[in-house]
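Residues determine shape. Take a concrete instance:
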Amino acid sequence: MAKAAAKKKAKARPQARSKAKAAATRGHHKPANSNEPSLSSRPMWQGQLRLSLVSCPVALYGATSRTADISFHLLNPETNNRIRMIPTDPDTGPVERADLVKGYEISKNHYVVLSNDEIKAVKLETTKTIDIQRFVDEKEIDRLYWNDPYYLLPNDKSGNEAYAVIREALAQTGRIALGRVVMHTRERLVALEPRDKGIICYTLRMGDEVVSPADAFGDIPATRPDKQMVEIARKIIEQQAGAFEPDKFEDRYENALRDLIRRKEKGETLVTAEPVEDDNVIDLMAALKKSLKAKGGSAPTAKRKAR
C-alpha cells in the first residue's frame, strides 16, 4: 500500500511540473529573468473568415506579447500588503463591481445608462465574421494606419482547405485583403496578409483616429538646411546603414530593472545613480563633423563642396 502511494506521488510530480511549465508559458507569474514571448493558450476572437461564398472557421491570437514586461503592484509600506482598488461611490461608499453599469456622459454629470444586455443587442455581422470586402496593394496603406498584428489560424480541420485556398490566392495576387471585425466592443478595419503557411491579421486605424501630418507639422518653419551639413548627416546615415535585425536590439531599461530586482532580492545595498546630464548641442556643424569622425569617415572639404 505504501509503495502504491509512493508510486502515485512520483507519477504526480511530472504532471505538476508540466502544469507549472504550461502556466509559465501562458505568462502567469513569470520570473524576473524570463522574457520569451509565446502564443496565448486562448484565442481573443473566434468566428468565420469569408471570401464571397467561401468561408472557414478561424481564431485570432495575439502576435506580440508584453507578459515579460516588468510590472509592479502597489503595496502598503507598513504591512507590505498589496493594495486593492475598490470602486467607491463618493456618497454611499464602496460598491460591488458586479453591480456597476455603463454610462455615457452626454453633459456634465448627466449620463445615458446602458445595461450589458442592451449593449449585446447591438449585433453586427462582423461580431462573428471577418468579411473580406476589398483587395489593395500594401503600398497603398499609409503606415500611420497600421495597428496591432494578430495570427489568424484555422479553428477547425473542416476549414483547412478553404483557409489554404484564401491564403494562396492572396500570396499569388500580392494583395492585402481588407475586412471588418468586432474586437473589444469596437468594429475594426483589418488587413490580412499571407505569411508562410498562415495569415497575419493587422488591425487598422479608422480615418477619424489618425491626426493629419499637415496639421501636426504645420508650425514647423520651412527652412533650407545648409547643404554641407546635410551631406555630413547623409554620410553618417550611410555608415550606420544595415539590415533590420530586431534580435540585436534590447530594452535596456527593462534589463536594468530585472538586474535591479535580482540584486535587491539578494539583499544588496543599492547606490542611487548619478543623474544623466543633458548634452546640449551648441555648434551643429562641429557636432556633425565629430559624429562622422567617430565613425571613421571624413567631412567633405570646401574643395569637394565646390566640385
